[in-house]
């Protein structure tokens, strides 16, 4: 796994990442399927400016789609705009996004769009909106961004499929909430909006208070609600939750594990949480 990094980084990253190649991701997805959990598979890599990196990424997603179909894995794929060429041009990104979702639709595989830094949200949303009516696509919305309530108003009118997260990035004060508690308050506001106006959405968080509130709201709701977590953070809870609710786990794989792992390290905040998530009884 990876070229750089010391032993501790690799140990931590190994908990969060399925492995270096797509077969590792498929194996982990099958393990979670055996626990009634759907996998959301992401090939690690972002901010590409070289055509060869983008071409390789597309090939890997196309192969992954075939594995998912042929081996009947219960899994979606989830792609990042900047791994599909957004830093080269919007046209390049849209062309590559459409190529992947068309192949995925042909194999009955659902494609999610991850959301990255705030400056890419408009391009991600417009590419998604062009495709939403054709189905089998979903998009991530981040509660740290002040614009997200307006984005949800627009998207829910079109029956978009939404994954609600707090957001793994930061942005300026005029665009985003600056404190964890404001971001969490906004998460509740957006989640309530989805329970009133959404159709199909995913509550993607490890925040226990939010999860409990969503379970309560879901008791009397007719919405299609899924709970989702990242691999290696609260696997045990995900398995328990899957006895009663629809649950997905985000399964990243690939060599480029460093940016993803640093985002997770930052969120863990302190060593105790990292160690707890490392030594939780789940072996995968
Ligand atoms: C399925 C899924 C898909 C995602 N997709 C995107 C995306 O496309 N774009 C994006 O910006 N973000 C994405 N994220 C990440 C998300 O935005 C948050 O950065 C991340 O989930 C941490 O926030 P939280 O909601 O768990 O709340 P937090 O307040 O960060 O965490 C709540 C609690 O969870 C535990 N916890 C959280 N992280 C860790 C950790 N690393 N180790 C140990 N314990 C931890 C702690 O107990 C913490 O108190 C995704 C998250 C999930 C679950």
From TrEMBL:
Source organism per UniProt: Candidatus Micrarchaeum acidiphilum ARMAN-2
InterPro entries the UniProt entry points to: FAD-linked_oxidoreductase-like, Proline_DH_dom, Proline_oxidase
Residue span, Proline dehydrogenase domain: 30-269
PANTHER family, sorted: PROLINE DEHYDROGENASE 1, MITOCHONDRIAL (PTHR13914:SF0), PROLINE OXIDASE (PTHR13914)
MF annotations from Gene Ontology: FAD binding; proline dehydrogenase activity
Gene3D superfamilies per UniProt: 3.20.20.220
Organism superkingdom: Archaea
Keywords: Oxidoreductase
Protein name: Proline dehydrogenase
GO biological process terms held by the UniProt record: L-proline catabolic process to L-glutamate
């Amino acid at each position: 796994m990876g070229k750089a990094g010391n032993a501790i980084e690799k140990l931590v990253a190994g908990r969060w990442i399925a492995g270096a190649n797509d077969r590792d991701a498929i194996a982990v997805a099958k393990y979670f399927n055996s626990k009634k959990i759907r996998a959301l598979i992401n090939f690690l890599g972002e901010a590409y400016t070289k055509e060869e990196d983008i071409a390789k990424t597309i090939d890997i997603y196309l192969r992954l789609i075939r594995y998912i179909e042929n081996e009947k894995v219960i899994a979606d794929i989830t792609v990042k705009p900047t791994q599909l060429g957004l830093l080269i041009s919007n046209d390049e990104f849209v062309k590559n996004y459409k190529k992947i979702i068309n192949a995925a639709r042909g194999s009955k595989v659902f494609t999610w769009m991850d959301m990255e830094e705030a400056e890419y949200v408009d391009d991600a949303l417009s590419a998604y909106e062009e495709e939403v009516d054709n189905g089998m696509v979903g998009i991530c919305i981040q509660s740290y961004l002040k614009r997200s309530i307006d984005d949800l108003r627009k998207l829910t009118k079109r029956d978009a499929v939404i994954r609600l997260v707090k957001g793994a990035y930061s942005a300026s004060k005029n665009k985003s909430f600056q404190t964890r508690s404001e971001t969490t308050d906004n998460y509740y506001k957006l989640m309530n909006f989805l329970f009133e106006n959404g159709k199909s959405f995913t509550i993607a968080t490890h925040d226990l208070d939010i999860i409990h509130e969503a379970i309560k709201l879901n008791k009397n709701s007719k919405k299609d609600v899924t709970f989702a977590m990242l691999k290696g953070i609260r696997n045990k809870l995900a398995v328990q939750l899957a006895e009663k609710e629809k649950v997905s786990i985000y399964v990243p794989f690939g060599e480029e594990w460093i940016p993803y792992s640093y985002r997770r390290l930052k969120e863990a905040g302190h060593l105790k949480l990292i160690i707890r998530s490392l030594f939780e009884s789940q072996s995968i």
